[in-house]
């Protein structure tokens, strides 16, 4: 699928103020600094669309982007950022939770995971929670430019072994690098195929 237009629509912390439309949407979630905003920029070929930073905790609101005037990409704050105060963490968590539970337009959540790390409890718990709430999700492994090809395979195998303990069928997954623009077509084609079905 080709992206011909990508526009910022609105940022907010209240799911009831998200765009009042019936367009399908796809949300990016995962630990702070995993590369959610960077991936949105890579997918849309616009390095300034979503704000990115080397410091975790950059994205602090629910951000809607309108793609091809037909669907939304949603950039969310990361979870698990230790340096945010307890109160802020609770606030973020509350509106992320509300977003996933209430946003009927959400078609699929992409849970981003840094390929270099061992499976993290916070990610596994979040996927479990999505499953319990019947929210479809896929996994996007990020920053694969940081590993050699054979290391990538080993990491993927280890990750899916851990997932197999909780999931009969593994979720769809994508292997990406925003730096090298790897996996971009696969993610876009996946979205395109869901939009058409
Ligand atoms: P928060 O908004 O803080 O939750 O972070 P985020 O998940 O949106 O991460 P962001 O896209 O801001 O990227 C965090 C850092 O990782 C930045 O320094 C990016 O340049 C870097 N980064 C993102 N994607 C990649 C990638 O594919 N490869 C490499 N090497 N670095 C990446
Ligand atoms: Mg971000």
From TrEMBL:
Q: Which residues form the EngB-type G domain?
A: 22-197
The coiled-coil segments of this chain are: none
Q: Which domain of life is it from?
A: Bacteria
Name its GO BP terms in alphabetical order.
division septum assembly
Query: Mind listing the UniProt keywords for this protein, alphabetically?
Result: Cell cycle, Cell division, GTP-binding, Magnesium, Metal-binding, Nucleotide-binding, Septation
Name the InterPro entries on file: G_ENGB_dom, GTP-bd, GTP-bd_ribosome_bio_YsxC, P-loop_NTPase
Q: From the UniProt record, which GO molecular function terms apply?
A: GTP binding; metal ion binding
Q: Which cofactor does it need?
A: Mg(2+)
User: Which family is this protein grouped under?
Assistant: Belongs to the TRAFAC class TrmE-Era-EngA-EngB-Septin-like GTPase superfamily. EngB GTPase family.
Main function: Necessary for normal cell division and for the maintenance of normal septation.
Entries under HAMAP family matching the protein: GTPase_EngB (MF_00321)
- Please report the name of this protein according to its UniProt entry: Probable GTP-binding protein EngB
Q: Which organism is it from?
A: Mesonia hippocampi
């Amino acid at each position: 699928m080709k992206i011909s237009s990508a526009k910022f629509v609105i940022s907010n912390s209240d799911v009831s103020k998200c765009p009042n439309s019936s367009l399908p949407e796809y949300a990016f979630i995962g630990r702070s600094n995993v590369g959610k905003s960077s991936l949105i920029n890579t997918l849309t070929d616009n390095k300034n669309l979503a704000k990115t930073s080397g410091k975790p905790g950059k994205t602090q609101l629910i951000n809607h982007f309108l793609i091809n005037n037909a669907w939304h990409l949603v950039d969310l704050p990361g979870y698990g950022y230790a340096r945010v105060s307890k109160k802020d963490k609770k606030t973020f968590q509350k509106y992320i939770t509300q977003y996933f539970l209430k946003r009927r337009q959400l078609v699929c959540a992409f849970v981003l995971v840094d390929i270099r790390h061992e499976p993290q409890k916070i990610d596994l718990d979040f996927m479990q929670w999505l499953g319990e709430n019947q929210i479809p999700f896929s996994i996007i492994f990020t920053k694969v430019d940081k590993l050699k090809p054979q290391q990538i395979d080993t990491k993927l195998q280890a990750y899916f072994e851990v997932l197999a303990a909780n999931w009969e069928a593994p979720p769809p997954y994508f292997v990406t690098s925003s730096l090298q623009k790897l996996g971009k077509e696969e993610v876009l084609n996946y979205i395109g195929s869901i939009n058409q079905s």
